[in-house]
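Hi team, as promised in this morning's meeting, here are the two structures we talked about. I've kept the exact order from the run log so nobody has to guess. The first one is mostly here for context; it's the second one we should focus on when we meet again. Sequence first, then the predicted C-alpha cells.
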Amino acid sequence: MKSKVLLFGATGTIGRAVFDELNRRGVDVICVLRAGSTSKLPQNASYLEADVTDVASLNSLFEHHRFDAVISCMASRNGAPTDAWTVDYQANSSALAAAKNAGVRQFILLSAICVQKPRLAFQHAKLAFEKELIDSGVTYSIVRPTAYFKSLSGQIKRVQAGKPFLVFGDGLLTACKPISNGDLARYIVSCLDDPAKQNKILPIGGPGLEITPLDQVAMLEEVVGRKVKVREVPIALMNAIIGMLSVAGLFSAKARDRANYARIGHYYATESMLVWDAEARRYDADATPEFGTETLKEHYEAVLSGDARADLGEHAIFAH
C-alpha cells in the first residue's frame, strides 16, 4: 500500500468514505480543503488549504510533503455548466498539473458511468479531464461507478409519510447496479496497488442483479411491510417543463438554472446507469462489473431503522 496519499474532495460523501478506508488500511493521508471553505472534513483529518483551480496554489501543497499518489473525488455540486467546468475539469486539471510538477506518479479519479453517453455539461467536463489524465503519462485509474445508494434513497421520506413513490414512464425505463459508499471506497483505494486496475477506465457497480425503479418499490414494500403506492410521471411532462424553463431561461438566470437541473433529471429518468454497448446500442447489465457485498435493500433497512450512519439522499434521480 502506498505510504502517503493526497486526497481531493474529502468533504463529499464518497471522499469521506475514501478517507475512512485509507485510514483503516493505515495509509498516511492528507486532505485538500478549498481556501475559505466552510465544508467539514472527516473528524481528525490532516489537511492543507489551497485554491483547487490554481496550479501555483496547489504547487505549494507539495513543498513540504512527498506524496506517492493523488486520489480525486472532486465533483460539481449541481452540474451547472460553469460549476462543472470549474470543478470537474479545471480543478482536476490543476491537481494533475501540480502532481506532475512534484513527480507524483499515480492519479486515481472518481468519475461517473453516465459519461458514456454525454449530453450534459458536467459529463463533457469529466470526459475532457479523463482524456487529459490518460494522455498525461501518469499511472491512472478512472473509476466510473453506477448509481450510489444515496441517489436511490430520496423518496424514502415520501414512502414513510404514505405518499406515492414516483416513477418515470412505467418504472421500467432504466436500471442500475447501485454501489454503497463503503464498497466504492474500498474499490477506489484498491487501485493504489492493484496493477489490474491501473491505466484503465473502470466501470463498477455493486453486487447482484440490475435494479429498476419498480424493483426499488418492491424492496421498500418488503422492508416497511406494506404496499407502497406508485405514481407514474410521463416523460412528456418532463419534456414540456424543460421546454418552458428553457424559454424562460432566455430572460432569467434562475429559470436557466432550473432548466439545466431539469435536463439532468430527464437524463437520469431515461438513461440506465449500466455499461453501454455502443455496437448493440443498448445497456448491458451482464457487462457491468460488480464489487462488494452491501446491498440496496440492506441500506433501506438501515435508513428505516434510524441508523445514523445510513446516507439518505435528497434527490432520487440525480447520481452524478
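And here is the second protein, the one for discussion:
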Amino acid sequence: MQQPDIAAVAEALVQARRSHRPSDALPLAGQLQTAADAYAVQALVDGRAAGVVPGHWKSGGPSRTAEATHAPLPAAGVWASPADASAWPFTLRLIEVEIALRL
C-alpha cells in the first residue's frame, strides 16, 4: 500500500476553494485510506482555509450504524434561518438537507 500524500490532497482542496473551481480528483483517488488520513487532511485545510474557525461543526455519517465523522465549518458559511446564501461563492449549487441545532 502506498503512503498517502496528505499534503497534496490538502493543497488540492485549498486551491479549489481559493480558485472557486473543482479539483481534478483522479490524481488524488486512493490517496486516503483511513479516517486518520482524512482527519490529517482536514487539519491542514482548517489551518489554511480562510474563515474556518472551530465553533461551528458538522457531524454525522451515512447511516445510524456508521461511525460519525466531524468537521469544522467556516463561520461565514453558517447562517441562521431564514438564510440567504446568494453572496456565498459557490462553485456548484445543489440542495442538501441539513438539520442544525444550537447548544
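Starting points for discussion:
Residues 6-19 form the longest helix (14 residues).
Helices lie at 6-19, 35-48.
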